[in-house]
Amino acid sequence: MVKEECKALLDALNKVTACYRHMVLTIGGTSDSQNLREELKKTRQKAQELAVANRNKLTTVLKDKTVSKEDKAEFERLWVIFSTCLEILEIDMRRALELGHEFPLNVPKKHLIQTGMSGGTSGVAARAMSVQNMKYEAERNIDVVDLKDLENEINQVGEMMYEMEMKVNVPQWTVEAKQDPGAELKSTISVGASSIGMISVEENKSFCDISKVLAGIIFSAVLIIAIILAVCVVKLS
C-alpha cells in the first residue's frame, strides 16, 4: 500500500515537473503573459507540495528497520528517481528566474524568443495538475513580485535536497536497475534481426524474380526451336 502511494506521488511529481519545464521554455516568447507567469507560480508550488509529500513518505519508509530487503531496494530506487526529479525542478526554477529577469513583463519590448508557439498555456497546466480550468486574476507586475518569491523557493528546494542527503544516504551507484543488464542492447539486436530478416525476404523475392525471368527465357527458346524444326520438316516433305 505504501509502495503504491509513493509511486503515485512520484508519478504526479514527474508530470507536474514536466509541465513546469514546458511552460518555462515559453518565457519571453510570443505566448508570454501575466497568465503564464501566474501559471508558472501555481505549477511550481504544486510541484513543491508533491516533493514534500514524496520526501516525507520515502524518508519514513527508508528509516523503518522492519522493511524487507526487497522492498527497501525498491524504495531506494524510487528515492533516486525522486532526487533526480527534484534536481530537474531546481534547474528549471533557476532557468525561470534568469528568463524572468531577461524578459520583464512591465517593460514593453519585442519578443526576442520566437518559439513559434501562440495562445495560452492553461491547458498544459490543467492536464498536469488535474484541474478543469486554470484562470487566474493576475496582479499587476506579477513578474516582479514573483521573482523574489522564486528566489526564496529555489533556496528552499536546495535546503530540502541537502536535508534529504543528511537524513537518508542512498548513493545512486548502489541502486540496481529493474531491467536486466543489456536489456536495451537486446532490444536493439532484436530490431536489427528483424531488419536483417526483412532484407533476407527482399533477397528471396529478388531471387524468385530472377528465376521467373530465366524460366521465361528457356521456355521461349524451346518454343522457337520447336517452330524452326517444324518449318524444316515441312520443307523437307
From TrEMBL:
One of its GO terms (biological process) is negative regulation of signal transduction. It comes from the Eukaryota. The keyword Membrane applies. The chain crosses the membrane at residues 213-234. Keywords: Membrane, Signal transduction inhibitor, Transmembrane, Transmembrane helix. PANTHER family: R-SEVEN BINDING PROTEIN (R7BP) HOMOLOG. Belongs to the RGS7BP/RGS9BP family. This is Regulator of G-protein signaling 9-binding protein. It comes from Calypte anna (Anna's hummingbird).
